[in-house]
Write a structure and sequence with these properties.
Largest sheet: 3 strands, antiparallel
Helix content: 55-70%
Radius of gyration: 17 Å
Number of helices: 6
Number of strands: 5
Distance between the termini: 32 Å
Structural class: mainly alpha
Strand order of the largest sheet: 2-4-5
Number of domains: 1
Length: about 200
């Protein structure tokens, strides 16, 4: 697996229930910022860079702290580019990049379906679900574009396609986190029964 391909994307807090109002420009910027440099995203970068360093992929970086830093930085540049593209194109195409929780009142199978559904769909300004074209373009565009600054061993079209597929897997993981983490946190830390705890 190419270094930096294990992207955990868009780990911004997820609100409970379908948004009732279109996303604002400020909310879009906040989503991009938190999804890129929020605590969960930075932790995801540590895991991704650590994994690449452990197996020394790509080998050009080496299995040491400097290599870890290079891998961490590479993931962060790719993630920031992808999130900026999704936020910017989403603004033009009126797509809301945020994940919203189905909530713990729904059956588990419905929540899992919701996680997968909104990996590939986004809400438009009217609140209707439609293909998340900005996300598709951002994931593919970023990963092919990043071939221009990646090490040679991970910079061919096949590597870009692999990173794009892995980005969607990361989105599924991100949505699952947004869906279930508030429930886990509430039960583990006994934070009452608030449905939209972050």
């Amino acid at each position: 697996m190419a270094s930096g391909s294990a992207q955990i994307t868009s780990l911004a807090p997820a609100q409970l229930g379908r948004p009732t109002d279109p996303i604002t420009g400020k909310q879009r910027l906040e989503w991009a910022a938190v999804s890129t440099v929020g605590p969960a995203s930075l932790l995801g970068g540590t895991i991704s860079a650590g994994w690449g360093t452990l197996f020394n992929t790509p080998h050009e970086y080496g299995p040491h702290w400097a290599g870890f830093g290079d891998r961490y930085w590479m993931r962060l540049t790719g993630l920031s580019t992808s999130n900026a593209m999704e936020a910017g194109l989403g603004a033009i195409w009126h797509e809301d990049p945020r994940y919203w929780r189905k909530g713990d009142g729904a059956p588990l199978k419905d929540r899992v379906k919701h996680i997968f559904k909104y990996t590939f769909l986004a809400l438009d300004d009217s609140g209707a679900a439609r293909p998340a074209y900005a996300r598709y373009f951002a994931y593919a565009g970023n990963n092919f574009l990043s071939n221009t600054w990646r090490e040679q061993s991970e910079a061919d079209p096949g590597d870009a396609l692999e990173r794009t597929a892995t980005a969607f897997l990361g989105r599924i993981a991100s949505n699952a986190w947004g869906e279930f983490w508030p429930d886990v946190k509430r039960k583990v830390f006994h934070h009452g029964s608030g449905g939209d705890a972050h």
